Structure formats: C-alpha cells, structure tokens
Amino acid sequence: CWNGRGRAGEEGDGVGTATIMLLGDTCTRGCRFCAVKTSRNPSPADPMEPENTARAIASWG
C-alpha cells in the first residue's frame, strides 16, 4: 500500500506489517485514495502465484 499511496502505507509504516498484492499488479476496486492500476477485467491469475507467494514469505525468515 505504500507504493499505492494507500492508507495502510500511512498508518502501517514501521509497524512491522507486510502487505502482498495478490493476483497481479491490477486492482478491481479502484479506491480514490490509491494509486494502484485498476481495471474491471484484469489479466488472468498466474498459476504459479501460490507457490511464488509462499516462497517469498518463507524467504523473509
């Protein structure tokens, strides 16, 4: 949310909470305060995303 200029970036900065955007780089919500790219019809999900996400989280220690 920090990169998207969202509220979690403002409130959560330095608190120790991680945020992962799932299902690509496009959001279907389109919140007015957010700078994340939006679309009603985002690209299909990557079939490897669950494994890649788990690997990324495991690498955090």
UniProtKB/TrEMBL annotation:
<dbReference type="GO" id="GO:0005739">
    <property type="term" value="C:mitochondrion"/>
</dbReference>
<keyword id="KW-0411">Iron-sulfur</keyword>
<keyword id="KW-0004">4Fe-4S</keyword>
<feature type="region of interest" description="Disordered">
    <location>
        <begin position="39"/>
        <end position="61"/>
    </location>
</feature>
<keyword id="KW-0408">Iron</keyword>
<dbReference type="InterPro" id="IPR003698">
    <property type="entry name" value="Lipoyl_synth"/>
</dbReference>
<protein>
    <recommendedName>
        <fullName>Lipoyl synthase N-terminal domain-containing protein</fullName>
    </recommendedName>
</protein>
<keyword id="KW-0479">Metal-binding</keyword>
<dbReference type="GO" id="GO:0051539">
    <property type="term" value="F:4 iron, 4 sulfur cluster binding"/>
</dbReference>
<dbReference type="InterPro" id="IPR058240">
    <property type="entry name" value="rSAM_sf"/>
</dbReference>
<dbReference type="GO" id="GO:0016992">
    <property type="term" value="F:lipoate synthase activity"/>
</dbReference>
